[in-house]
Amino acid sequence: MMEGVAQAGFYTWDPNGVEHVLNEVLSVADHAELPYSWDGDEPATATDIGLGDVLLLHADETEFRIRFEPDDKIERRLKRFLGLSTSARYLVGTDEHGDQYEGYTATFVDLIRRLSIALEPDYVSVGHPVKDVRPSPLEIMPTEGVFEIERLPWLSVYSPSLIDQFGWTDRISASPAWKVDQLDTGAVLLIKTQEPWADVSRDHPLDKHLLDGDDA
Fold first, then answer.
1. Is the residue at 216 inside a domain?
2. Tens-place pLDDT, residues 154-179
3. Residue 143 CA to chain centroid, in angstroms?
4. What is the span of the domain harbouring residue 206?
5. Which pTM was predicted?
6. Which of 131, 136, 12, 31 is nearest to 69 (CA)?
7. pLDDT of 34-48, one tens digit each?
């Protein structure tokens, strides 16, 4: 059983107002039939949401936690505007056929997919929950200036503009990832390995294909 916290960070180059983000998140929760509540007092309006306010989406006797992060006003930087987290202990592998997630893992991945379509982030990253084996922030997280990736996380989403920036347009559809899912927005959701975090190394064929240009 995996310990720690599974966290998905949603990033954008452009300002993404908290009122719009909140409305889209609540719409996604309604369509996914996930009841929600606030951890503490509900903010009076969307603009009152602070870093300490957490929206809880309830599923299967546990919960997903959503944090809304304000614009930092820094130009030329990929900014994190939303965080989705849950206990990693509930994330398990695939069904008996090995081609689909089930239960809580399926709900987690489906939430990321739905939110990516609704919010159209430039980048989404789910890092490994264990500090000793996960990529460092410098390897998979945006920093100031040009955004580069040195190691691919277990699950990630890339906007069409980011795919073009990386030069992946002709390569990403043939990526040796467990799942390559092109979204209606033109973005691509990649799941590196069938079992969550089964291989987080830089030597995975997916990393070599997209980051080094090796043939799949």
1. no
2. 999 999 999 998 999 999 999 999 99
3. 17
4. 5-211
5. 0.89
6. 12
7. 999 999 899 988 888
Q: Which long-range contacts (CB under 8 A, 24 or more apart) does 61-66 make?
A: 62/86, 62/87, 62/90, 62/104, 64/34, 64/107, 64/108, 64/111, 65/39, 66/25
Confirm whether 169 is domain-assigned. Answer: yes
Report helix, strand or coil for 196: coil
In a domain, 92, yes or no: yes
What would the pLDDT profile of 181-207 be if each residue is shown by its tens digit?
A: 999 999 999 999 888 888 777 889 999
| C-beta of residue 146 within 8 angstroms of C-beta of residue 77 | no
Domain-embedded: residue 66: yes
Q: Coil, helix or strand for 144?
A: strand
CA distance 178 to 42: 39
Indicate the number of domains in the chain.
Answer: 1
Contacts 24+ apart (CB under 8 A), 33-38: 34/58, 34/59, 34/64, 34/107, 34/111
* pLDDT tens readout for residues 54-64: 999 998 778 99
